[in-house]
Amino acid sequence: MVFLRYLVALPLLVASVVGVPTGYHVLSSYLYRRELRDEKFDVVGEFRESFTENVVGWPMALAIVLLVVFWWMTTAWPKIALVPSVPASVGGAIIGLIDGWENAASAATAPFVAWGLAWLAGKIVSWPVTGEVRRSAVEIAVGLRGGGRLRVQSRRLLLDKLPPPVHPMSPIGRVAIRFDRISAVEAGVVHTPAPWRLANTSELTLTPGEVLRVIGGGQEWLLPVGDAAALRQLVVERAEHRAVPDPRPAMESDRWSHAKNLWELAGQEPPVRNTRTVNHGNRWAALIISALTTPMALFSVFRIFTDGWGYLVGVFFFGLIAWIATHVWFRQGVLYKLTEENPVSPMADEPDPQRNPVTGWSAQPVVLGQTRDL
């Protein structure tokens, strides 16, 4: 059962977001006391005190909230695990440069340990891919030959880690197809090397071997994978059980601004091919600012009840910055998500599944009712 996998993975997640930062705090305190030749060291007391440290406490709480929200997105768990460990390790590294190499070494190691534990937890939940996992909401990541990654998510297929878009004006570095818009999924083989351009103008190199063909939402994907038949089974079953219609907004909506810019690039060849990845830095900068100022605003609210109304200034100042940053982050997320799922105009015709997409393509026969685990 998928539930049992989560139970097995839970201790690893707790260790990555709670055990690593608190453990590092206890270790750094011990090294400091040893430097002072203080023979008394209360491990339990230091562990309790670590929860009250601002550099540990609120990032740890934020990471726990993010894990609850993104319980199905296993590829995000390692990044979430870095939220509490990185701030603690940065401070420890600075202190370690003064007090000794042991503190600096432990500070540098903490993020890697947290990342590894969360990565292992994600693998326990998502692999191997059995029938229950195929029908669940758990995200499953599959690497592509030659670069790129397919993420089979709860409601859609997402391609990321793609080569840079050929056109420098492409606004996105990822593309997605919602399950409710998939019209054909086919396992096949490519016998000769061929390039395949996606709707965001990123190009995949199809090397000879198995390929998964997906058509939907005006897009056509050819994905070089290791086991196309098993991946096809995963996509088909996930779509049957998890597809939920998601009506598009009206075409007059300003949420289509990025998508319309991408539609205009269709069929164009830039004079110079782009080699730089798409920069989404503004959105993540807004998220970081929001994460930093929201606790400050909440702390100012707390201080109003303990130290007077003078802290109302902090509530309004930090609260306004947090609200603006959160709004920017959410707004940009909506625009990018809509563009990823609609890199082709909804008015465009669906690709013909009967034609050969590239030279050297041949479809694999599919046995009805066949199930295979990845």
Automatic annotation (TrEMBL):
Q: Which organism is it from?
A: Lentzea atacamensis
Name of the protein in question = Uncharacterized protein
Domain of life of the native organism: Bacteria
Question: What UniProt keywords apply to this chain's record, in alphabetical order?
Answer: Membrane, Transmembrane, Transmembrane helix
Spell out where the chain crosses the membrane: 55-73, 284-305, 311-330
